[in-house]
Amino acid sequence: MEEEKQLDSQKYAADINSIKEAQVRIAPYVHRTPVVSSTSLDSLSGKRLFFKCECFQKGGAFKIRGATNSIFSLEDEQAAKGVVTHSSGNHAAAVSLAAKLRGIPAYIVIPKNAPICKVENVKRYGGQVIWSDSTIQSRESVASKVQEETGAILIHPFNDKRTISGQGTVSLEFLEQIPEIDTIVVPISGGGLISGVTLAAKSINPAIRVFAAEPKGADDAARSKVAGRIIMLPKTNTIADGLRAFLGDLTWPVVRDLVEDIITVDDTEIVEAVKLCFEVLKVVVEPSGAVGLAAVLSDQFKQKRSWNEMKSIGIILSGGNVDLSVLWESLRSRSFVAAAV
Amino acid sequence: MEEEKQLDSQKYAADINSIKEAQVRIAPYVHRTPVVSSTSLDSLSGKRLFFKCECFQKGGAFKIRGATNSIFSLEDEQAAKGVVTHSSGNHAAAVSLAAKLRGIPAYIVIPKNAPICKVENVKRYGGQVIWSDSTIQSRESVASKVQEETGAILIHPFNDKRTISGQGTVSLEFLEQIPEIDTIVVPISGGGLISGVTLAAKSINPAIRVFAAEPKGADDAARSKVAGRIIMLPKTNTIADGLRAFLGDLTWPVVRDLVEDIITVDDTEIVEAVKLCFEVLKVVVEPSGAVGLAAVLSDQFKQKRSWNEMKSIGIILSGGNVDLSVLWESLRSRSFVAAAV
């Protein structure tokens, strides 16, 4: 391929410079999130585990990093017309918040079946909710209509250089906080987070391994990696509602070339990981955010050839926005907890 | 009183030196816990709030600080005979863990009605559970019997210089992390935490105000402060099961002289604070650990004369050990969350 002949820094959508620029740009608006650890979980996994708590990030997820980097990169004239997104969930809340910080309108197209707490987050941060049907076609067409009417610019949740560069700042911080990390495990959906994290980490230390963690019920990235091309699924079925997107043309090359492998886990493993986060780490994580821990505890991960070389594993807990009632039913329906008396 | 004529450093059970010594002694064994903040909670309170997350501490609560300081202060010969405590809950888990770290036996007298998750914590950390009835008489007599039979030394949960000095390290860290804090709000039970925290904070900056937060259903400290002497209650009734102890002769002088005031909150306010910690901070806090936030959000606190002078308030989230099923029922029975579909 022609791309292969170019320098690494030109081959992928972002690089260490765009990520460092993002870090400076977004610093006034985002939290430097803490890292927690637990000897109980170290014992359970047989490795030293470090958890980067992006659930404590503004908006409850890492998404504010990419959204802030994108929105604060806009020229004033463009910014004044506002921004739009048709991705529901944490990206929507992040775009609302970042737009509010810049003082511009945010139009958020949300499917009618979105979790209530995520809709509430959007409203709390001042986003204007515009409802669509749940199909991607409906969401895209409603968003296009908003763009035509307002001149607002679309802020893509993952397939965009500025978004990827913003998400990559997680890696910079994490490796500053815990320099001995030799392996990073990252939830994968559209691939924005893992692309930024991988490009930053590999630039700092090419020996660092990055694994993606993905629900079995939305295993498009795992299938893509095997097939050598982007695979989309006709439907997805997982409790990890934030991990149902498919890779884009800017994120796929990073996953294809630089991500070690994709570990897939089922919903039972994900819920068990959520429960460990609550009960052992004392951290509120949504199912999509806990998939990295689920992957590290899976048999599939232990069978990796590089398992014995891994000493210190960094796990990104990517978000914490969860309806307590939904979570509770997930835990109880799987008999992880006894019914309350 | 004769005491009044002595120097401050001789008047109270601990001082900045014993607390700094504790910090060095316990450093290899405890976490430096992170501080989190939330603009949503800042807006809600009208102040800048900083949350010291002792729920992420080893053993899930600040108690390991005092337990480690006490147990690692013992001479080898004494230590070899082991340690005993009749306080159930987080102190019991902390003593178990600290004893395990030193490689000595821990005998933990636990009343039969203790929460399951706290008993499990004790067992997980290798403590030997010895059951008693729920009365304090039964607990003390069982503990005395263990002491006689084994020669183990009692590790008091709060009324002890080494325990107080260990808990005071929370303050040292907190003020290193957030130097602009002008007010600290601390849960109060037996007074070990607030004594250490107050002595350290006042020594670093005498202008810092320290408030205690206490459940209305166990408001012995508030009554003591008004009466000018230690008041004990015939019974207590609160969801904050870790805050039912009464002040001791070593903790009372600090509360009497140096603690600004005691803010009391009812169980509904405590549960609402727990929910805010979960949903906004994404931190799992037990009811006893959330009472500081409940106090800061209460009308009683806003009516304090010094309210207008407070800018940056440090709140200690003191523990995170909670049965999810019990918590869920607390939330649901108070209609804070809709029943799951």
From TrEMBL, chains A, B:
The keyword DNA repair does not apply. CDD domains: Thr-dehyd (cd01562). The gene is SERR. One of its GO terms (biological process) is L-serine metabolic process. Keywords: Isomerase, Lyase, Magnesium, Pyridoxal phosphate, S-nitrosylation. Its EC number is 4.3.1.18, 5.1.1.18. Catalyzes the synthesis of D-serine from L-serine. Has dehydratase activity towards both L-serine and D-serine. The lineage of its organism: Eukaryota, Viridiplantae, Streptophyta, Embryophyta, Tracheophyta. Its cofactor is pyridoxal 5'-phosphate; Mg(2+); Ca(2+); Mn(2+). This is Serine racemase. It comes from Apostasia shenzhenica. GO terms for molecular function: ATP binding; D-serine ammonia-lyase activity; L-serine ammonia-lyase activity; magnesium ion binding; pyridoxal phosphate binding; serine racemase activity; threonine racemase activity. InterPro entries: Ser/Thr_deHydtase_PyrdxlP-BS (IPR000634), TrpB-like_PALP (IPR001926), TrpB-like_PALP_sf (IPR036052). Residues 27-319 form the Tryptophan synthase beta chain-like PALP domain. The keyword ATP-binding does not apply. Belongs to the serine/threonine dehydratase family.
